[in-house]
Each structure stands twice: as structure tokens, then as C-alpha cells.
Amino acid sequence: MRVPLSWLREYVDVAPGTTPADVLAALVSVGFEEEDVHRFEVTGPVVVGRVLEFVSEPQTNGKTINWCQVDVGEAHGGVRGIVCGAHNFDAGDKVIVTLPGAVLPGPFPIAARTTYGHVSDGMIASARELGLGDEHAGILRLVDLGLDAPVGADAIPLLGLDDVAVEINVTPDRGYALSLRGVAREYAHATGGTFRDPGERAWDQLQQPDGGFAVAVEDDAPIRGHAGASEFVARIVRGVDAAAPTPPWMISRLVLAGIRSISVLVDITNYVMLELGNPVHGYDLDTLTDGITVRRARPGETLTTLDDQVRDLHPEDLLITDGSGPIGLAGVMGGAATEMSATTVNVLIEAATFDPVTIARTARRHKLPSEASRRFERGVDPLIPFVAARRVADLMVQLAGGTLDLEVGGALFTAYEREAIALPKPFVPGLVGVDYDDAEITSSLQTIGADVYDADDRWLVTPPSWRPDLTDKWTLAEEVARIQGLDRVPSVLPTPPAGRGWTADQKGRRRVANALAAAGLVETPSFPFTTAAHNDLHGSADGAPQPSVKLANPLDGSAPYLRRSLVPGLLQVAHRNAARGFTDLALYELGAVFLPEPGVAYGTAEVPAPARRPDDATLAALDAALPAQPRRVGVLLTGNRIAKQPDRLAEPFTLVDAVDVVRTIAAAAGSAVEIAQGQRAALHPGRTATVTAGGREIGYAGELLPDVAADADLTGRVYVVELDLDQLLASAGDAVVATSLSAHTPATQDVSLVVPVEVPAAAVRAALVDGCGTLLESLRLVDDYRGQGIADGTKSLTFALLFRGADRTLTAADATAAKLQGVELAAERFGARLRD
What we know:
By secondary structure, this protein is an alpha+beta fold.
């Protein structure tokens, strides 16, 4: 919300010398966030001048310019010659002249310059050049603005260009602050200044005519039991001059508030919306047929809105209609057929309150956010429409020369009642932690406009009509803390009990994340939303259809399912980076996946009220309504592991790097894993590894099929890893046992075994480990040979073994005996034989 300070001063006392920073500090103290300060980017000299004479001079480029003699006053050099391309003025007109040294928005410095054969000693300005609007076809004439001032007078204060606005962030629960009325009240709370409520009007000024214009609400489809409209006021102003100028003070305030000036009639409705917080709409009365009816849309109805878009209406949309059909989306945008225009003579003013949920849904459904919907969906003061309608009528009479019709009009009003909230007297100090006395609590609540009744051990508090966010004792306590000053709330950290800290799983997840980051990978958390096709492809080994959780209200309609795998999210991140030229990627993510059981309906448990902690049975029902959500770690590698350098070619990622990532993760988790060849629907056959830990398969690593990578617009080879982190950490056990380092010399041995080609190398390795016994310290596969000298259907696996004794230096015979025990066990399990 942008708040021009000249406007703020009308409704609250602002001390002389108060700066925009002071105003923002005061508003921050009552709970608003500071955003920005806005000014007109105009510096002087900008003065009033009189056109004495001019000569029109056609140019070779087809334009005609005017060589003008303009009197800007003796203090500014008297008569100056100025070239002007506009033609909407005559000799004798007073205009706005920017003299050399002035700076206009852009920034655009003004200087004497030669143009069209003349030295133009300044510039006659248009509204657009001064930042007062979009109109640039003609210059500003004082007579068009309804102004007069002596020649040479400073035009900056005359046009309101010396005003400044502060901008604050208004949270959704405080919609009343989307108005000068609301902000001025809050500023009064912060500073103690006197607040003058623009919403207070004598009832005899607000009384509607007895009738003559039919107004009805026919809502046969209320949302949550709430009718679409609760108040609707229609007032008529006749004989307006739609071409009358909007006064500069109103234009400058609207511009500073972020709303462009359009015409005097539209500007008045926008001005009152900003002033009182109640959006107001004006109709060209002569385009209406019959009366006004507020109803829901019917099947097949359409409406052309003010932005000239034809919109297909939904049965939940609330409409303003007349005898011809829809003429406006209630609370969102009016219709083009009945808009106020340059030919409007008689105006129907509409001020109403609409159901917030209805307006919010309509604005989102049609992707049509507006200043009106922004206020209605947050809640408008139900007692202000009569004031707003009369305020608009008064301004149209004052500025557009109209006459308020006191005989014809219409109104619907729902009696406004609000239940009192019981506030126990010890509650606020106990909740906030400040020893407020009774007077501080009651005065704070009365300051915000609430009625407070003392009922012995409690107060009965009736919130004001403009505060729909005050619904219980907790929100009342927050108001007391806010008004009394948030600086009084103590900042005391609780003392944690002994023995607390991260759980073993939390420590394990952090070790894994740190290890991957230390290995050069980049963490890229992603949204857990995907498609059914991606869940089927990456969520199972065979790519068969899998049960998935579908969101009732997804952020993206094209990805409405919760993920079963981390790979789709990593592919999206890689696609986004590749589109921006980053093709060498090593990414990882730790996150949850969602694995529903077939046939189980999830999300059906009733959500308990937030006022107290749910009991065990309620928590169990909530847990049962959620699918299993194991944590996984996913990795994606593509492009080059090492970039091209002098004397060194680029080294791309390979499957070896993906397998090494698995070992890095396992080491960080403190778990032993086994890697064997496997198959998955999304991965290349022959380049896929399954990973097991503790006898259970926990994940995989491999190269994506080219078609799968191409679907993500990724070129080259792409390698992925996905492991069940919960199972991996569980397989590690609770304790890590450190072994002593032997000081004895190791003995090394090599062994080459010929086995059938289908036997995994990991299985042969496991047999050697089991057979060699405790003397074996380590072994690694160093060769996998298939070719000349090896029978078809077999392969030769060569392992490097390292033996070490804990209490003695081993002899070659000791190492050989242990090795042969391993060979014997491999022969027993797989028919392995020593290679000749």
C-alpha cells in the first residue's frame, strides 16, 4: 500500500518536520513491513509560463512545429523562445514550462538546445513528461486543470509534484490497511496523533432515497453458506461533465499511490477506494436497462470486461446484471458495455460488500487480479458502503458538475452483528510474557475500535466492523502486544534439557549431504510434484503403472502428482540449467518420496482445530491418512567431470563416476554396500547397477536411456543415482567401531578367476572375502577380460588382494594359503577356476 503523506495528514496529525523514514518507522512499530519511498522524479526550475505568440513552421519530415515566445517571469529570464510540437494551445494560455537545469523522469535533463533551426530555451511540458500520466499528445494548460497562478510561479507544488509516498507491505489478514483510513488509524496508534475518521458521516447525509431504482440479490448457490453480497448501495448523480479535468492534487495522489489517472469520473471512484478501502464502481446510467440484480452466472453466459476480453463465466462467478444480462464481475472488474466514458452524462454509483471467498475464486479463475478484488478478498468494512457511495457522489458533484439525485436510488443492507469474544483477564500476560495491567489491555483494545465490557474474571470484547481478522482471544492478545509495543515482549531463549540434539538419522543425513557437497556436487532442492508418466517410469524398475497421490489443488495442473522418485526433479533442474548454457552438471537432492499403497484413500482424515493439541487417536488417524514417505538421496551427472584445459582434454562423466558417488554416500552413512549389474526401465541395459545394503536392495545407479534424456532436452550421456537413505542408514547400525591399525608389513597377492559371464563380479568378490578370512584387509577388481584365450560364455576377473596380520608379519605362504581358501569357495559357489 502506497500512502501519499499529504493525504495522510488529512486524517491524522503528523508532526512538522516528519520525514518519510519517520513515518515508516512508526508504521513498522505497529507491525507493518517497510517497502519503499516514492517521489516524483522532477526537480526545478519548473514554472508557470504564458504563451505570448507562436509561429507554425512545417518541416521536411512532415511534422509542423510551433516556434513559441513564452513569458516565464522576470525572475526566470522573461520571454524565452521554445520549440513545441503540440498544437492544443493558443496565444494567452498559461502552460507548464521546464527551464534549463530542470530534470524530468527518465532522468531527462532539460537544456537549451538547437532544434528545427531554433535554440529552444526550455520545454513546454505534457502530463507524461512530468510523470503525471500517460497522456502525451498535448501539453498541460492550466485552464484544463482548473488552475490559475501568476506567471513565473513554481509549478512543482502547484501540481502536487512535491508530495511523497511511503509504501508498506500489508499482510492478507489486515486488509483494512489497504486504505488511507486504515493506515492513518494505525499511524495514530503508533504516534498518539489525533485520528480523524473519514468514514464518519451523519446518517442524514447517508440515507438513501426510498426507491425508484430496483436492486436485488438472488444468490441460489452461496459458498460456505455465505451469500455473495451482503450490502449493495446504488446512488445516482445526473448531469456530470465527463470531460471536466481531474484536479492536479488528485492526480498526484493517485499516481503516487500507484494508480494512473484516466478521467475525472473513474479517478473519483479510485480515489475513494484508496481513501476508505471500499471499491466503488460507476456505470453509465443511460446504458442500463431495468434495475440491478446480483446473482451467480448461468451456463453459457459470457461477459466482455473493461479490458476488452470476452470471458466465459463459471457458475460460481458472482455477477452484476441488468435486464440485458451480465454487466460486471462483482468485486473484480466491470463490463465494457456500461463503462463510464467521455459521453457519460448520468452515473449510477455502486458500493457493496461481497463474500471474500467468492471474489478470490473468481479473480484467480479468470486470472484477473485487480485493486478491487485485492480488497474484497481480504474483507471490506460492512458499514462503509453507504459512506463510500455518498463520498463518490459528493466528489462528482464538486469536480464534475453533477447533481445528486435525492429521489431515485436503491440499497440492500444486512443487519450487522458480531459476537463478543471472551478474553480471560490473566490470558494476555500469560501468553505474551509481559505483565500488562488491566488498564493497558482495555485501552489497547479500545484504541483499535473494539467495545470492551468488564465481566468479573474476563472481558467481553466486540471487535470493530473493519477488523474481520479478530476472531478469538489469541488475535486479541496479539493486538494488545502490538499496540503496547513489540519491544516490550521479552527475548528470552529457553534452556534446552540435557541429552537432546540431533538424532542418529539426522546426523547421518547431514554427513551424506556434506560428503556430496565436498565431492563437488551441488544441492538442488525441487518441488515434489510430477506427472503420472514420470512416476511410472522412474518410480519402479519395470516402468509399470504405479499408484500415485494426486493433489486436489495442485500448483501446476500439468504436474498434479506427488513424486515417487527424485529423478524427475533432478531432470527438471538439469533442463533449466542446460537451457541457460550450463551443461556440465553434478547435482544432488535429499528429499522425501511418496509411496501410496494400492487401493488406499489418502487425505481423508478430518483436520483438527488448531486451538489445542490433538489426542493420540487423532494423530494416529492423521498418520494413517498419509502415504509412506521415505527419504532418498538422488544424484544426476552429465557433461564433463573435468573441463578442457591446456595440455589436457575434457573428461566426461562415466558410469564409474556414478558408482563412485554410491560409494561416497555409503561411506558417509557408515554402511557397506554391494553393487551388481541390474535392469531398470529408464536406464540403459548393461549400464545399470543395483545397490544392496544389509541384504536389501536400496537403490540403483546407471545411465539414462537416450530417449529419456532427450525428453528433458539433455544431450550426451546422463547418469543418475537414487538410494533409499532411510534403509541405508538403518543398515549402518547404531555404532561405528574403529579398528586398530596394524604396524606389520602387508602381503599382496593377485588372482585371476574364470567364471561364467553371467556371474556378477560382486558375487565373486563376496566369495573371496568370505573364503580368505580375517587376514584379508582389502581387495579390488582390477580387470574384466573377455577375448582370446578365454572360452566363449566366460570371463576372467582379476582381483588385487592385500593381507595383513594383526600380531605378526605374514609370509608369502600365509598369504597364498588364505588366497587359495577364497578361490576354493568361489569354485564351490560359481565353478570358478584359476586362469591359466
